[in-house]
Design goal:
5-stranded mixed sheet, 12 strands, Metallo-beta-lactamase, Chain A, about 35% helix, 7-stranded mixed sheet, about 280 residues, alpha/beta
Protein backbone atom coordinates (compact mmCIF):
# COMPACT_ATOMS: atom_id res chain seq x y z
CA UNK A 1 0.00 0.00 0.00
CA UNK A 2 2.81 2.42 0.87
CA UNK A 3 4.49 1.66 -2.44
CA UNK A 4 1.21 2.31 -4.26
CA UNK A 5 0.75 5.63 -2.43
CA UNK A 6 4.28 6.69 -3.34
CA UNK A 7 3.51 5.76 -6.94
CA UNK A 8 0.37 7.93 -6.91
CA UNK A 9 2.28 10.87 -5.42
CA UNK A 10 4.92 10.54 -8.14
CA UNK A 11 2.25 10.53 -10.85
CA UNK A 12 0.61 13.63 -9.35
CA UNK A 13 3.91 15.50 -9.13
CA UNK A 14 4.69 14.68 -12.77
CA UNK A 15 1.22 15.77 -13.84
CA UNK A 16 1.52 19.05 -11.95
CA UNK A 17 4.91 19.65 -13.57
CA UNK A 18 3.42 19.04 -17.00
CA UNK A 19 0.60 21.49 -16.25
CA UNK A 20 3.11 24.12 -15.10
CA UNK A 21 5.17 23.60 -18.28
CA UNK A 22 2.09 23.99 -20.50
CA UNK A 23 1.05 27.12 -18.59
CA UNK A 24 4.52 28.57 -19.06
CA UNK A 25 4.55 27.81 -22.76
CA UNK A 26 1.08 29.34 -23.11
CA UNK A 27 2.41 32.49 -21.43
CA UNK A 28 5.25 32.55 -23.94
CA UNK A 29 2.70 32.82 -26.74
CA UNK A 30 0.72 35.72 -25.34
CA UNK A 31 1.28 39.20 -26.83
CA UNK A 32 2.82 41.93 -24.69
CA UNK A 33 2.44 45.63 -25.34
CA UNK A 34 5.76 46.92 -26.73
CA UNK A 35 7.47 49.37 -24.42
CA UNK A 36 10.46 51.69 -24.47
CA UNK A 37 13.11 50.48 -22.05
CA UNK A 38 15.52 53.42 -22.26
CA UNK A 39 16.98 55.59 -25.00
CA UNK A 40 16.86 53.65 -28.27
CA UNK A 41 16.06 50.28 -26.66
CA UNK A 42 12.55 48.78 -26.89
CA UNK A 43 10.90 45.58 -25.65
CA UNK A 44 9.19 43.77 -28.56
CA UNK A 45 8.85 40.25 -27.16
CA UNK A 46 5.90 38.22 -25.95
CA UNK A 47 4.55 38.04 -22.43
CA UNK A 48 7.04 35.37 -21.44
CA UNK A 49 9.89 35.54 -23.95
CA UNK A 50 12.01 38.65 -24.36
CA UNK A 51 13.06 40.25 -27.62
CA UNK A 52 14.69 43.67 -27.79
CA UNK A 53 14.84 46.16 -30.64
CA UNK A 54 17.69 48.68 -30.72
CA UNK A 55 16.92 51.48 -33.15
CA UNK A 56 19.74 53.31 -34.95
CA UNK A 57 19.89 55.68 -37.96
CA UNK A 58 21.33 52.80 -40.02
CA UNK A 59 18.63 50.28 -39.08
CA UNK A 60 17.71 48.01 -36.22
CA UNK A 61 19.45 45.43 -34.07
CA UNK A 62 17.26 42.65 -32.68
CA UNK A 63 18.33 40.61 -29.67
CA UNK A 64 16.58 37.22 -29.32
CA UNK A 65 13.91 35.87 -31.64
CA UNK A 66 11.95 33.76 -29.12
CA UNK A 67 10.34 30.60 -30.46
CA UNK A 68 9.38 30.15 -34.10
CA UNK A 69 5.85 31.08 -32.98
CA UNK A 70 7.15 34.39 -31.59
CA UNK A 71 7.95 35.95 -34.97
CA UNK A 72 4.44 37.32 -35.75
CA UNK A 73 4.28 38.85 -32.26
CA UNK A 74 7.70 40.47 -32.68
CA UNK A 75 6.71 41.85 -36.08
CA UNK A 76 3.46 43.28 -34.71
CA UNK A 77 5.28 44.95 -31.80
CA UNK A 78 7.97 46.47 -34.04
CA UNK A 79 5.31 47.89 -36.35
CA UNK A 80 3.16 49.14 -33.47
CA UNK A 81 6.13 51.22 -32.33
CA UNK A 82 6.24 52.77 -35.79
CA UNK A 83 9.29 50.90 -37.12
CA UNK A 84 9.69 48.38 -39.92
CA UNK A 85 10.81 44.81 -39.35
CA UNK A 86 12.53 44.94 -42.75
CA UNK A 87 14.88 47.59 -41.35
CA UNK A 88 16.46 45.12 -38.90
CA UNK A 89 20.06 44.68 -40.05
CA UNK A 90 21.63 42.60 -37.27
CA UNK A 91 20.20 39.62 -35.37
CA UNK A 92 21.80 38.68 -32.03
CA UNK A 93 20.94 36.24 -29.26
CA UNK A 94 21.70 35.60 -25.64
CA UNK A 95 22.07 31.86 -26.07
CA UNK A 96 21.23 28.94 -28.33
CA UNK A 97 18.06 27.46 -26.85
CA UNK A 98 14.85 27.00 -28.83
CA UNK A 99 12.97 29.67 -26.88
CA UNK A 100 15.48 32.38 -27.79
CA UNK A 101 16.71 31.45 -31.28
CA UNK A 102 13.69 29.52 -32.55
CA UNK A 103 12.64 32.46 -34.74
CA UNK A 104 16.10 33.28 -36.09
CA UNK A 105 15.75 31.47 -39.42
CA UNK A 106 12.40 33.09 -40.20
CA UNK A 107 13.54 36.55 -39.15
CA UNK A 108 16.66 36.21 -41.27
CA UNK A 109 14.44 35.23 -44.20
CA UNK A 110 12.12 38.18 -43.66
CA UNK A 111 14.80 40.82 -43.09
CA UNK A 112 18.05 39.59 -44.61
CA UNK A 113 19.68 40.53 -41.29
CA UNK A 114 23.23 39.48 -40.49
CA UNK A 115 23.25 36.79 -37.79
CA UNK A 116 26.04 37.33 -35.27
CA UNK A 117 26.77 34.72 -32.60
CA UNK A 118 29.35 33.71 -30.02
CA UNK A 119 31.72 31.08 -31.38
CA UNK A 120 30.72 28.49 -28.75
CA UNK A 121 27.04 28.66 -29.83
CA UNK A 122 27.63 28.81 -33.59
CA UNK A 123 27.46 25.05 -34.17
CA UNK A 124 24.17 24.82 -32.31
CA UNK A 125 22.59 27.63 -34.31
CA UNK A 126 23.73 26.21 -37.63
CA UNK A 127 22.77 22.61 -36.84
CA UNK A 128 19.45 23.44 -35.20
CA UNK A 129 20.42 21.23 -32.27
CA UNK A 130 20.64 22.10 -28.59
CA UNK A 131 24.26 21.25 -27.80
CA UNK A 132 24.13 22.64 -24.27
CA UNK A 133 23.90 20.63 -21.07
CA UNK A 134 20.10 20.77 -21.39
CA UNK A 135 19.94 18.98 -24.74
CA UNK A 136 16.43 20.29 -25.30
CA UNK A 137 14.18 20.95 -28.30
CA UNK A 138 15.85 21.98 -31.55
CA UNK A 139 14.96 24.66 -34.10
CA UNK A 140 15.27 25.48 -37.79
CA UNK A 141 19.01 25.84 -38.54
CA UNK A 142 20.24 29.31 -39.39
CA UNK A 143 23.52 30.38 -41.00
CA UNK A 144 25.79 32.49 -38.78
CA UNK A 145 27.25 35.35 -40.83
CA UNK A 146 29.74 36.51 -38.22
CA UNK A 147 31.28 34.60 -35.34
CA UNK A 148 32.51 36.54 -32.33
CA UNK A 149 34.48 35.89 -29.16
CA UNK A 150 34.48 37.40 -25.67
CA UNK A 151 34.85 41.22 -25.67
CA UNK A 152 34.17 41.57 -29.40
CA UNK A 153 31.86 44.39 -30.44
CA UNK A 154 28.97 44.83 -32.85
CA UNK A 155 28.31 48.34 -34.21
CA UNK A 156 25.48 49.82 -36.26
CA UNK A 157 24.49 53.45 -36.75
CA UNK A 158 26.56 54.79 -33.87
CA UNK A 159 25.45 52.15 -31.34
CA UNK A 160 28.06 49.64 -30.17
CA UNK A 161 27.31 46.48 -28.22
CA UNK A 162 30.02 44.54 -26.39
CA UNK A 163 29.78 40.76 -26.05
CA UNK A 164 30.62 39.25 -22.66
CA UNK A 165 30.95 35.46 -22.59
CA UNK A 166 28.89 34.25 -19.61
CA UNK A 167 28.69 30.47 -20.17
CA UNK A 168 26.86 27.82 -18.22
CA UNK A 169 23.29 27.93 -19.46
CA UNK A 170 24.90 27.27 -22.85
CA UNK A 171 28.58 27.22 -23.70
CA UNK A 172 28.24 30.44 -25.70
CA UNK A 173 25.80 32.29 -23.45
CA UNK A 174 26.38 35.99 -24.18
CA UNK A 175 25.60 39.03 -22.07
CA UNK A 176 25.49 42.17 -24.20
CA UNK A 177 26.18 45.69 -22.93
CA UNK A 178 25.77 49.07 -24.60
CA UNK A 179 25.45 52.75 -23.79
CA UNK A 180 22.45 54.89 -24.66
CA UNK A 181 21.21 58.35 -23.78
CA UNK A 182 17.87 59.59 -22.54
CA UNK A 183 16.99 63.16 -21.55
CA UNK A 184 20.63 64.15 -21.80
CA UNK A 185 21.87 61.40 -19.47
CA UNK A 186 23.98 58.40 -20.46
CA UNK A 187 23.00 54.93 -19.28
CA UNK A 188 24.70 51.55 -19.56
CA UNK A 189 22.31 48.76 -20.50
CA UNK A 190 23.00 45.06 -19.88
CA UNK A 191 21.09 42.37 -21.78
CA UNK A 192 21.87 39.56 -19.35
CA UNK A 193 22.11 36.00 -20.61
CA UNK A 194 20.38 33.39 -18.47
CA UNK A 195 22.32 32.14 -15.45
CA UNK A 196 19.67 29.73 -14.21
CA UNK A 197 20.38 26.01 -14.13
CA UNK A 198 17.78 24.08 -16.11
CA UNK A 199 15.89 21.35 -14.30
CA UNK A 200 17.72 18.05 -14.59
CA UNK A 201 21.08 19.66 -15.42
CA UNK A 202 23.88 18.59 -13.06
CA UNK A 203 26.89 20.67 -12.11
CA UNK A 204 28.93 17.69 -10.94
CA UNK A 205 29.67 14.79 -13.27
CA UNK A 206 27.97 16.38 -16.25
CA UNK A 207 28.87 14.25 -19.26
CA UNK A 208 27.55 16.69 -21.88
CA UNK A 209 29.51 19.68 -20.52
CA UNK A 210 32.12 18.46 -17.99
CA UNK A 211 33.31 22.01 -17.14
CA UNK A 212 29.83 23.41 -16.54
CA UNK A 213 30.42 24.32 -12.88
CA UNK A 214 33.51 26.33 -13.86
CA UNK A 215 31.54 27.96 -16.65
CA UNK A 216 28.95 29.28 -14.22
CA UNK A 217 31.66 30.44 -11.80
CA UNK A 218 33.24 32.46 -14.61
CA UNK A 219 29.90 34.00 -15.51
CA UNK A 220 29.25 35.28 -12.02
CA UNK A 221 32.72 36.84 -11.91
CA UNK A 222 31.92 38.67 -15.15
CA UNK A 223 28.47 39.77 -14.03
CA UNK A 224 29.74 41.08 -10.69
CA UNK A 225 32.17 43.32 -12.56
CA UNK A 226 29.46 44.90 -14.70
CA UNK A 227 27.78 48.04 -13.36
CA UNK A 228 24.72 48.60 -15.55
CA UNK A 229 22.15 51.28 -14.84
CA UNK A 230 19.51 49.26 -16.70
CA UNK A 231 19.36 45.48 -16.87
CA UNK A 232 17.03 43.29 -18.85
CA UNK A 233 16.96 39.52 -19.39
CA UNK A 234 15.62 36.84 -21.68
CA UNK A 235 12.48 36.27 -19.61
CA UNK A 236 10.52 39.30 -18.43
CA UNK A 237 9.93 37.92 -14.95
CA UNK A 238 13.66 38.08 -14.25
CA UNK A 239 13.77 41.89 -14.42
CA UNK A 240 10.20 42.73 -13.43
CA UNK A 241 9.03 43.63 -16.93
CA UNK A 242 5.30 43.61 -16.29
CA UNK A 243 5.44 45.77 -13.17
CA UNK A 244 7.99 48.19 -14.62
CA UNK A 245 6.11 48.53 -17.91
CA UNK A 246 3.05 49.75 -16.00
CA UNK A 247 5.14 52.65 -14.64
CA UNK A 248 6.95 53.47 -17.87
CA UNK A 249 6.56 56.95 -19.33
CA UNK A 250 6.48 58.72 -15.98
CA UNK A 251 8.85 61.26 -14.44
CA UNK A 252 11.37 58.54 -13.60
CA UNK A 253 12.30 55.52 -15.67
CA UNK A 254 11.47 52.33 -13.72
CA UNK A 255 13.90 50.30 -15.82
CA UNK A 256 16.81 52.24 -14.34
CA UNK A 257 17.49 49.77 -11.54
CA UNK A 258 21.17 49.25 -10.65
CA UNK A 259 20.31 47.88 -7.21
CA UNK A 260 17.90 45.39 -8.76
CA UNK A 261 20.74 44.15 -10.94
CA UNK A 262 22.98 43.59 -7.93
CA UNK A 263 20.22 41.66 -6.16
CA UNK A 264 19.59 39.56 -9.26
CA UNK A 265 23.26 38.55 -9.55
CA UNK A 266 23.49 37.77 -5.83
CA UNK A 267 20.33 35.61 -5.83
CA UNK A 268 21.41 33.78 -8.95
CA UNK A 269 24.89 33.06 -7.67
CA UNK A 270 23.57 31.83 -4.33
CA UNK A 271 21.22 29.42 -6.13
CA UNK A 272 24.16 28.11 -8.17
CA UNK A 273 26.37 27.68 -5.07
CA UNK A 274 23.57 25.92 -3.20
CA UNK A 275 23.09 23.37 -5.96
CA UNK A 276 26.84 22.88 -6.27
CA UNK A 277 27.19 22.22 -2.53
CA UNK A 278 24.30 19.78 -2.55
CA UNK A 279 25.64 17.84 -5.52
CA UNK A 280 29.13 17.65 -4.06
CA UNK A 281 27.72 16.42 -0.76
CA UNK A 282 25.97 13.55 -2.58
Amino acid sequence: MKTFRRYLVTILICAMGAIDARAQESDWRQPFEPVKIVGNVYYVGTHGLSSFLIVTPAGGILIDSGEAASVPFIRASVEKLGFRLADVKILLAGHAHFDHVGGHAELKRLTGAQVVAMDADREGLESGKDLSALGGTGWTPVHVDRTIKDSDTVTLGGTTLTAHLTPGHTQGCTTWTMDTTENGRRYQVAFVCSVTINEGVHLVGNTRVPAIADHYARSFRVLRDLKPDVFVAEHGGVFGLEEKAKRAGGATNPFVDPDGYKRFVERSEQAYLKQLREERAR
